[in-house]
Write a structure and sequence with these properties.
The complex is a heterodimer of chains A (117) and B (114). Helices cover 0% and strands 49% of the residues of chain A. With 117 residues, chain A is mostly beta strands. In chain A, strands 2, 4, 5, 6, 9, 10 and 11 form a 7-stranded mixed sheet that branches. Chain B is globular, with a radius of gyration of 14 Å. Chain B is mostly beta strands. Classes of the chains: A mainly beta (117), B mainly beta (114). The A-B interface holds A 31, 33, 35, 41-45, 48, 50, 55-56, 58, 89, 91, 93, 95, 97, 100-111, 113 and B 30-31, 33, 35, 40-45, 48, 88, 90, 92, 94, 96-107.
Chain lengths: 117, 114
């Protein structure tokens, strides 16, 4: 069964460093998302991506964040200068929607645990 | 309560019993999805119910949706120790044409004792 994959599973970085989190969505999916979950808290939406551009983004997704689909399979989240409060589990998700306004299941990857020291 | 708020926060039952978790939300929705998360792991999609559906089944799972009360319930029948996990409801409340961004609740932590 197709699944969303993410690498790395765990990333440790120093404050101020840049990190890139990678995701491979399910191959025929059209919509891509990043969410994050700070330890013990809710899963929070960061950004959605469709047709090679950002569709929506939350207040969390500030200028330090960017997303890219560099080729036909990968979807990346970059944090330019990490802060301590960026430590969280980051989830990539994808969904297929064949009809505008009708959204189907979002399938999540296993997550990347980011630790900022 | 906030959009996608589950109750109870924690539920402990014996193997073989049924587990019922509830979710309430505030705004109108396109669909509601239930996910399971084992401790420190990823989110596993369980079931999606659309706003025009009232009930849906998948194996031992039964989901209901009452849009007049803005609530949903997830029933797990004949629970097993392997069902121990946190369960989240997530609402897609985007306006028509939006990208279906999900709003998650805090989850119900289910513990099934063998």
């Amino acid at each position: 069964e197709p699944e969303v994959t993410q690498t790395p599973s765990h990333q440790v970085t120093q404050m101020g460093q840049e990190v890139i989190l990678r995701c491979v969505p399910i191959s025929n999916h059209l919509y891509f998302y990043w969410y994050r979950q700070i330890l013990g808290q809710k899963v929070e939406f960061l950004v959605s991506f469709y047709n090679n551009e950002i569709s929506e983004k939350s207040e969390i997704f500030d200028d330090q964040f960017s997303v890219e689909r560099p080729d036909g399979s990968n979807f990346t989240l970059k944090i330019r200068s990490t802060k301590l409060e960026d430590s969280a589990m980051y989830f990539c998700a994808s969904s297929y929607s064949g009809r505008r306004g009708v959204y189907n299941e979002q399938f999540f990857g296993p997550g990347t645990r980011l630790t900022v020291l | 309560s906030q959009q996608g708020e589950e109750d109870p926060q924690a539920l402990s039952i014996q193997e073989g019993e049924n587990a019922t978790m509830n979710c309430s939300y505030k705004t109108s929705i396109n669909n509601l999805q239930w996910y399971r998360q084992n401790s420190g792991r990823g989110l596993v999609h369980l079931i999606l119910i659309r706003s025009n559906e009232r009930e849906k089944h998948s194996g031992r799972l039964r989901v209901t949706l009452d849009t007049s009360k803005k609530s949903s319930s997830l029933l797990i029948t004949a629970s097993r120790a392997a069902d121990t996990a946190s369960y989240f409801c997530a609402t897609d409340a985007g306006s028509w044409g939006s990208q279906g961004n999900l709003i998650f609740g805090k989850g119900t932590k289910l513990s099934v004792k063998p």
